[in-house]
């Protein structure tokens, strides 16, 4: 990987090995968990617009259904093998987008996303220099993107090392099973535990997700 936070397809974070050593030294659960997944790593794929569009398409439907809708949507706006462009989305009417199986609301969200990218409301080229919260503020101003989606974007696309997504049910479940013998965990307890993982909270989160589902998530 050329630089931390690079968004080229298929890259892995340069900090990963250092993060694993740090977490294994400081946390008894991580020391046991990390070796179970060998050389598996977080990977960033696709460009920013495509990644966020996929997150909108996939909201509140199954993975299989989301893939079907995505394939139709991608074909409408340039073909599944081509990088999607905001201009191509804006060139289509909402009714045309809905022929891909999108709800009226999701079609509106995708148009709003495209508009933010097309008019420069989101500062993609400055993101590498911006802190996490500043990027989250830009993203949640887009319809259909909440804090959880913005945090997933920080982890999976920008590969920021220290994100702790406290609204993520998988993270809370992983903490519950690995640290609290299955007892329910509050956000406050998860936040306190996560302080011990800094500055690599994204990496610890990724391994807890793996503890629930060995197949790596990709966006």
Automatic annotation (TrEMBL):
SMART domains: ENDO3c (SM00478)
Sorted UniProt keywords: DNA damage, DNA repair
Domain HhH-GPD: 57-213
Its EC number(s): 3.2.2.21
Domain of life, per lineage: Bacteria
Coiled-coil residues: none
Keyword DNA damage in record: yes
KW Lyase (keyword) present: no
Enzyme class: hydrolase
InterPro entries on file: Alkylbase_DNA_Glycosylase/TA, DNA_glycosylase, HhH-GPD_domain
Catalytic activity: Hydrolysis of alkylated DNA, releasing 3-methyladenine, 3-methylguanine, 7-methylguanine and 7-methyladenine
The protein's name in its UniProt record: DNA-3-methyladenine glycosylase II
Species annotation: Ideonella lacteola
């Amino acid at each position: 990987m050329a630089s931390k936070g690079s968004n080229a397809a298929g890259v892995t974070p340069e900090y990963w090995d250092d993060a694993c050593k740090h977490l294994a030294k400081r946390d008894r659960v991580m020391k046991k968990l990390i070796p179970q997944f060998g050389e598996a790593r977080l990977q960033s794929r696709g460009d920013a617009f495509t990644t966020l569009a996929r997150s909108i398409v996939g909201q509140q439907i199954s993975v299989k259904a989301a893939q079907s809708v995505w394939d139709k949507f991608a074909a409408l706006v340039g073909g599944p093998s081509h990088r999607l462009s905001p201009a191509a989305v804006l060139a289509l009417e909402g009714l045309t987008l809905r022929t891909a199986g999108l709800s009226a609301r999701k079609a509106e969200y995708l148009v709003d996303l495209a508009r933010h990218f097309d008019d420069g409301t989101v500062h993609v080229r400055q993101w590498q220099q911006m802190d996490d919260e500043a990027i989250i503020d830009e993203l949640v101003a887009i319809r259909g993107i909440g804090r959880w989606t913005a945090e997933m974007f920080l982890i999976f696309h920008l590969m920021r090392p220290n994100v702790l997504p406290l609204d993520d049910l998988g993270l809370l479940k992983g903490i519950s099973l690995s640290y609290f013998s299955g007892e329910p965990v509050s956000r406050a307890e998860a936040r306190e535990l996560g302080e011990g993982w800094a500055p690599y909270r994204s990496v610890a989160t990724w391994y807890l997700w793996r503890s629930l589902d060995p197949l790596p998530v990709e966006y």
